[in-house]
Amino acid sequence: MQHLNQLLERLIKAEVEFVLVGGLAAAIHGSSLNTRDVDVCCRFTEGNLKRIQAAFHDLHPVHRARPDIALNVTPELCAGLRNLYLKTDIGIVDCLGEVLAIGGYDEVLGHSIILELPVGSLRILDVDALIKAKEAMGRPHDLITVQHLRALKTRTSR
Amino acid sequence: MTAAPPSQPPSFPSEVELRPEIDSETGIDLSLIEENLKLTPWERILANDDTINFIDAARASLQKRHAAS
Q1: N or C: which terminus of chain B carries fewer CB neighbours within 10 A?
Q2: How confident is the model at residue B1 (pLDDT cuts 50, 70, 90)?
Q3: A131 CB near a chain B CB, below 8 Å?
Q4: pLDDT by residue (tens digit) across A9-66?
Q5: pTM for this one?
């Protein structure tokens, strides 16, 4: 079973520095497209990655491409990685060090808005930055998302 | 006093009037976006999970059916 809501709740409660980007951000903005993973842009410091590990410690987090390797945040891992692609018992989380066309964590943070959810405050990439990032990625499904975001932007600006 | 005109039954709307609003350029069903916009952000997250879990359950059932036949 997928529980992306619980993954987000855990990241929030563990005080991970992150901004939600990608398909779930688009869905939250109002897109009718569904998604199967949580994409976050996060600060790639050892402390922050350790908070991510702690948030998912009981969910058997592993590297998506190598499910035989459990997540184990070490200084070596932090130094060598710009992205972290994780699989847990309740869903997939991709942790990105930067977002195409926007920049690194600080730039992404500058283009984020805060939503107050029942589980805490969530930072999410704003619609304009999401459109820019999805356009830059340019894959067919990204461009469909762009069309959705543009359509909902028109609806909400009425 | 003049008699009130007999009330006309409301005419049933045409198929075109009943069709959800579709963006002519992209084909996106704008009514689905409208429905999503009525939800809170948290409700949108839960709705996404519900949909994906339903699809997975339905797919598992379909595979079971294929395996049995």
Answers
A1: N
A2: low
A3: no
A4: 999 999 999 999 999 999 999 999 999 999 999 999 999 999 999 999 999 999 999 9
A5: 0.87
Task: Establish if A60 belongs to a structural domain.
Answer: yes
Structural domain contains residue A157: no
- Residues near B27 by Cβ (< 8 Å), separated by ≥ 6? none
Spacing of C-alpha A58 from chain mean position = 20
In a domain, A46, yes or no: yes
**Residues A125 and A133 sit within 8 Å (Cβ to Cβ):** yes
Q: What is the ipTM of this complex?
A: 0.81
Residues in B lying within 8 Å of A, measured between beta carbons? 23, 26, 28-30, 32-37, 41-42, 44-46, 48-49, 51-53, 55-56
Largest Cα span, chain A: 50
Q: Would you say A18 and A11 are in contact if contact means Cβ atoms under 8 Å apart?
A: yes
Residues of B in contact with A30 (CB under 8 A): 33, 36-37, 44
Other CB atoms within 10 A of residue A54 CB: 14
Judge whether A153 and A134 are in contact, CB under 8 Å.
no
Q: Which of A5, A117, A148 sits opposite B28 (nearest CB)?
A: A148
CATH number for the domain that contains residue A80: 3.30.460
